[in-house]
Design brief:
heterodimer, A: 342 residues, alpha/beta, D-Maltodextrin-Binding Protein, domain 2, 2 domains, nine-stranded mixed β-sheet, two-stranded parallel sheet, B: 448 residues, MetI-like fold, 3 domains, three-stranded antiparallel β-sheet, 19 helices, extended
C-alpha cells in the first residue's frame, strides 16, 4: 500500500516536472570563466525580471560536449570556454542539429612570470622556461631525456643571470597551472629533438611535456596568487607565475619577464602578441533564443560596459577587458546572433 | 599455552607415585607470577582500547575546534549605520506610493549619494568607487524592501544599519591587517581610514547575520546564504526516503519471510551486499544515463538527485531491515500462525512492528549518508551556482555538501568562514538525524 502510494506520488511529480517549460537559462563550461559568468548571472537575476541562470562548472571540454548534445529544453543554452571551440566540436554540434552557434569573446587571461624590481628583468624564451621547470630535459648531446640538471639560469643560457633557479608557481589543482603547462611547456617541448622523437608514445611524450620538476627549484606556492606576490618581494632571486591582474596591481614592486621578446603589458595581452595569454569565450545556442526567455538579455548584460568594460565589475574580479573597439564589435555581433563559421 | 600445560601437570599427574593427589598450591611464586601476567595482559588490553578512543576523540576535537573557530564569525556580520535621506525625487517623484514605482527606484544611487554626503572630502572617480565598496551591493535591496513595507519613510531622514562589503567585514573581524602594507591587502589605506572613521563614530556594529540562514548562494560573500542548499537537501532527501524506504522494506520482508531458500535468492543476497560497497560515483553515472538521457528528467533537479541517491541508499536499508526482521523471535511468528493468522497478517501485525526500530535506525543512517554525498550529484548537474531557493523537486537546486565545496573553492577571503559555518550547519543536521534515530530506537524498543 505504502509502496503503491509512494510510487504514484513520485510518478505524478515526475510528470508535472517534465510538463513544465523551462524559464531559466542553463550554462555549463569552463571553471576559469565560472567566476565571471556567475557574477554576471547574479547581476542579471537581480536587475531583470528573469530568473538567475544556473551555472555548472564542468570544464571547457565537458561543457562543449554537453552543449553539443542537442537542441531542446534539457540541453544547456550557453557554454563557457577558456579556449576557442574546435572544428571537430562544431561538427559534432552540427551533427546533433545545432547548426548555429554564436561566439562571444569576453576578454583575456594572461599569465606572467614576474620577479622583484630589485633584480633585473628576465628575458626568456619558452624553451628556456621549459628547461628551467621541466622534470626531464634533453641531455647535452640531445639524444636522451635526463632528470633536469640545471641549478642556475646561467647554465641554461649564458645570457641569463648567474642566480639559482627558483620558480614559485600554482599547484596542479589550479587553472593557472593548466594554462601555464599548455601555453608554455607543451608549446616549447616539441622544439627539442629528444622529445619530438617520442611523439608517437603518447604517455611518455605527455609526461615529458607536462612534468614539472620536484627537486625544489619549482615551488608550489598555493592557489593564492597574492601569496606568491608577497613571497617574491621577500625573495628577489625568485620568479613567480600568476595571473596578469596581480602584476597590474603590484606594478610598483614587481616586473614581468619578457617572453619571446614581448613584455606582458595590457596592450600586448589584448592584441595577443604576448605569447602566454588566452582568450575566454562563451557560446550561445541560437536555436534556444526565443524559446528560453532571457538569453539575449543575459548576453546584453555580459557585454555591457558596466560588466566587461575597463572599470566594470568583471575587471574587479580579474578579467582583462578587450580594447574598446573590439568590445563594440563583439557586442554587435553577439546581439545580431551572427552564427560562428569555421 | 605452555602455562596451561604446565598448570595441568602441576595439578594432576594422577599416575605419578610421588604425590598422587597434590592440590594446586595457589600461593606458590610460580602461580603468582602467572596470575600477575594474566592481569597484566588484561590491563594492557583495556589500555589499548582506551588509547584508541582517546585518539578518535582527539581527532574529533581537533576537527571540531578548527571548524568552529574558523566558522563562528560567519554568524555575525559587520553593519554600518548611515544617515539616509529617503529622497522623494529619487524614489517616488510623483508621490504615487505605487509599489511598482518604488521597486524600480535607484536605491543603489541613494546609498551612494548619502555615502558622499557622509564623506564630503572624498572626490574623484576612482576614490568614490573605493568609497562605495564600504556598503555591500546588496544593501539597496534591503532598503527597497524597507521602503516598500513602509512607504511613509519617503521624504524622511533616518539612521539605517546597512550591510557592509565583505572586505570591510574581514577588516572589522581582524582577518585583514589594517597595519600592514597597503599593497599586501585588498583594501587601500584610504578605505581603511574611512572605515576607522566610521568605527570612531560608533557607526559600525557586528549584528547577527540572518541572511546567512535565509539567503541563497551568491558571488558576494556577504550576501551568500545556506538556505537554498538546505532546501535542496531537504527535497532531495524526501525523494530518496519516499523511494528507498518502501522498496527497501518490501525487499527485506520478501527475502526474509517469503522467498524460498535457493541459489537465486542467495545470488540476490550477495549482490545486495556488494551494491552497498559500490562507490557512489557509479550511481551518479547510472543516474545520468537512466534519468537524464533515457527518461529526460530535468537536469540539476532534486528529483533526479533523490532518485539517484535512493539507488545508493537501498542496499543499506535492505541490509539493516533484514537484520531487524531476522532478530524477531520465530516463536512470535509461530504463535501468530498457530492462532490462525495468515502469513501477511503475521508479517504486518507482528513482525514488522517489532522490527521497526531496527528498520528505522538503518533508514536514518542511510539517509544521513545520502545527506553528505556529493560525487553522484556531480554527474547529474547539481554541482552548480544556483541563486534562487528551489520551490519544488523539479527546480534546479544544490545540496549542503556541494555548497560547502563551491564556497571552499571561491577566491574571496570571506568565503573561508562561510565554508566552516556551512560545515557546522551540515554537522548539526547529521547530529539531529542520528539523535532522532536513537530516540526512535528507545521509543519502540521491546525486550523479550
Amino acid at each position: 500500500m505504502k509502496k503503491t502510494l509512494a510510487v504514484a506520488a513520485l510518478l505524478s511529480v515526475a510528470v508535472v516536472g517534465a510538463a513544465q517549460a523551462r524559464d531559466q537559462i542553463r550554462i555549463v563550461g569552463s571553471s576559469t570563466v565560472f567566476p565571471f559568468s556567475t557574477a554576471v548571472a547574479e547581476e542579471f537575476g537581480k536587475t531583470t525580471s528573469f530568473k538567475t541562470p544556473v551555472i555548472e562548472s564542468t570544464g571547457s571540454g565537458g561543457g562543449i560536449k554537453l552543449f553539443c548534445a542537442g537542441v531542446g529544453e534539457n540541453q544547456p543554452d550557453i557554454t563557457n570556454a577558456s579556449r576557442r571551440i574546435k572544428k571537430s566540436e562544431v561538427e559534432t554540434c552540427a551533427k546533433n542539429g545545432i547548426a548555429e552557434v554564436t561566439e562571444v569573446k569576453i576578454g583575456f587571461d594572461g599569465i606572467v612570470l614576474a620577479n622583484s624590481k630589485s633584480t633585473d628583468t628576465f628575458k626568456l624564451t619558452k624553451e628556456q622556461i621549459f628547461l628551467a621547470v621541466a622534470k626531464t630535459v634533453p641531455s647535452q648531446d640531445g639524444k636522451s631525456l635526463i632528470d633536469n640538471p640545471y641549478k642556475k639560469w646561467s647554465e641554461i643560457d649564458a645570457s641569463l643571470p648567474d642566480i639559482a633557479i627558483e620558480v614559485l608557481g600554482p599547484p596542479p589543482t589550479s587553472g593557472t597551472r593548466d594554462a601555464f603547462v599548455e601555453l608554455v611547456m607543451e608549446e616549447a617541448c616539441d622544439s627539442f629533438d629528444a622529445i619530438k622523437a617520442i611523439k608517437d608514445n603518447k604517455d611518455q611524450h605527455g609526461a615529458a611535456c607536462k612534468g614539472v620538476r620536484e627537486d625544489g627549484a619549482f615551488i608550489e606556492a598555493g592557489e593564492n596568487d597574492n601569496l606568491i606576490v608577497q613571497k617574491l618581494e621577500a625573495n628577489p632571486a625568485a620568479l613567480g607565475i600568476f595571473g596578469f591582474s596581480f602584476l597590474d596591481q603590484n606594478g610598483d614592486k614587481l616586473h614581468g619577464s619578457i617572453i619571446d621578446g614581448v613584455a606582458p603589458t595590457f596592450e600586448a595581452i589584448a592584441d595577443a602578441s604576448y605569447p602566454v595569454s588566452r582568450s575566454m569565450y562563451f557560446y550561445v545556442k541560437n536555436a534556444h533564443v526565443g524559446t528560453i526567455p532571457g538569453i539575449m538579455e543575459y548576453v546584453s548584460e555580459f557585454t555591457s560596459e558596466k560588466a566587461w568594460g575597463d572599470e566594470g565589475y568583471l575587471a574587479d574580479r580579474g578579467l582583462i577587458p578587450m580594447p574598446t573597439a573590439e568590445r563594440e564589435a563583439v557586442r554587435n555581433a553577439a546581439m545580431n546572433m551572427s552564427p560562428l563559421s569555421m | 599455552m605452555t602455562d596451561m600445560a604446565s598448570l595441568m601437570e602441576d595439578r594432576a599427574k594422577p599416575g605419578t607415585p610421588k604425590d598422587p593427589r597434590k592440590p594446586v598450591n595457589w600461593d606458590s611464586p610460580d602461580i603468582a607470577r602467572r596470575i600477575k601476567k594474566r592481569y597484566g595482559a588484561d590491563r594492557r588490553f583495556k589500555m589499548y582500547g582506551l588509547v584508541a578512543i582517546l585518539m578518535a576523540l582527539a581527532a574529533l576535537l581537533t576537527l571540531g575546534t578548527s571548524i568552529v573557530s574558523k566558522g563562528y564569525t560567519a554568524f555575525f556580520h559587520t553593519y554600518v549605520e548611515l544617515e539616509i535621506f529617503f529622497d522623494p525625487a529619487e524614489i517616488d517623484p510623483d508621490r504615487t506610493n505605487d509599489p511598482a514605482v518604488i521597486g524600480r527606484a535607484n536605491f543603489d544611487g541613494l546609498i551612494k549619494q548619502n555615502l558622499r554626503n557622509h564623506f564630503p572630502d572624498v572626490t574623484g572617480r576612482s576614490e568614490l568607487r573605493q568609497l562605495y565598496d564600504v556598503i555591500s551591493g546588496g544593501a539597496s535591496y534591503d532598503l527597497r524592501t524597507r521602503v516598500m513595507e513602509n512607504p511613509s519613510l519617503i521624504g524622511e531622514t533616518r539612521k539605517v544599519w546597512l550591510i557592509s562589503g565583505d572586505d570591510f567585514d574581514m577588516l572589522n573581524k581582524g582577518f585583514i591587517d589594517a597595519g600592514g602594507e597597503e599593497a599586501s591587502r585588498r583594501l587601500s589605506d584610504a578605505q581603511v581610514g574611512w572605515f576607522q572613521r566610521l568605527v570612531a563614530d560608533g557607526a559600525v556594529e557586528k549584528q547577527f547575520h540572518k541572511r546567512f540562514f535565509t539567503g541563497g548562494d551568491s558571488r558576494e560573500p556577504e550576501l551568500a546564504g545556506i538556505w537554498g542548499a538546505a532546501v535542496g537537501s531537504f527535497y532531495t532527501l524526501i525523494i530518496t526516503l519516499l523511494l528507498s524506504f518502501p522498496i527497501g522494506v518490501a525487499a527485506a520482508v520478501y527475502l526474509e519471510e517469503f522467498a524460498p531458500r535457493n541459489r537465486f535468492t542467495y545470488l540476490v543476497e550477495v549482490n545486495i551486499n556488494n551494491l552497498a560497497a559500490v562507490p557512489s560515483i557509479v550511481f551518479g553515472l547510472l543516474g545520468l544515463e537512466v534519468y537524464l538521457n533515457l527518461m529526460h528528467l530535468p537536469r540539476s533537479a532534486p528529483l533526479v538527485g533523490g532518485l539517484t541517491l535512493a539507488l545508493m541508499t537501498l542496499p543499506t536499508i535492505i541490509i539493516a531491515s533484514r537484520a531487524a526482521i531476522k532478530a524477531v523471535p520465530p516463536s512470535i511468528r509461530q504463535a501468530a500462525l498457530g492462532l490462525g493468522a495468515s502469513k501477511v497478517q503475521t508479517v504486518t501485525h507482528h513482525v514488522l512492528p517489532l522490527a521497526m526500530p531496527g528498520i528505522l535506525t538503518g533508514t536514518i543512517i542511510g539517509m544521513a549518508q545520502a545527506l553528505g554525498e556529493t560525487a553522484p550529484l556531480l554527474m547529474i548537474g547539481m554541482v552548480a551556482f544556483i541563486v534562487d531557493v528551489p520551490g519544488g523537486v523539479t527546480d534546479p537546486a544544490t545540496v549542503l555538501p556541494v555548497q560547502i565545496y563551491l564556497w571552499a573553492d571561491s577566491p574571496e577571503r570571506a568565503f573561508v568562514e562561510k565554508t566552516s559555518a556551512a560545515i557546522m550547519v551540515l554537522l548539526g543536521f547529521l547530529i539531529l538525524m542520528n539523535g532522532f534515530a536513537v530516540y526512535l530506537r528507545k521509543k519502540f524498543e521491546r525486550k523479550w
